[in-house]
Specification:
Layout: E1 2-6, E2 9-13, E3 17-24, H1 33-52, H2 56-73, E4 79-85, E5 88-91, E6 94-97, E7 101-109, E8 113-120, E9 127-131, H3 137-144, H4 158-166
Antiparallel strand pairs: 1-2, 3-4, 4-5, 5-6, 7-8, 8-9
Helix pairs in contact: 1-2
Length: 168
Amino acid sequence: MEVKQNQNQIVINLGNSLLEWDTPEFIKYHTGRAWKIAAIGVVLLLLGISALLQSLTFALVILAFAFTYYILFNRLPGILRIKLCEKGIQIGSSKIPYENIHGYWIIDNPPISETFSIRIKGKVLGDMTYLRINTKPDQIRQVLNGKIPEMPKQSESGLDIFLKLLRI
């Protein structure tokens, strides 16, 4: 891997791209009228509980959460280009050398879950998961074989499954 410093910027050269695909930043679920009414009902219920408990702080947290959710998930997801290169992985504009990656795993359970995940070394929340669009698991394994280890028997977390069920 070639690292150059150019006018206070570090430029990382990961080499040629061996496999690449485009993926959305997040999954945009279709939420119908019933889902929206239920969400508003839950927020109002929690605000009612905060009023009964006379907890202004709890009410503010609920309102902040609802506002943040509305702002973040009321937009269309951007498209990220994922490139598996000779010396690292590029995700959008972020470049991650293989020596900074602990391992990877693939979940192949179509049509429910087709993902590619990596774990970054030295990060508390270092797991990053992306959709595999028109990319087969064997293609990814072939490129990453010998570069970073595959972490076997990984599965979706209970939280991920719960969030999919709620369409959040």
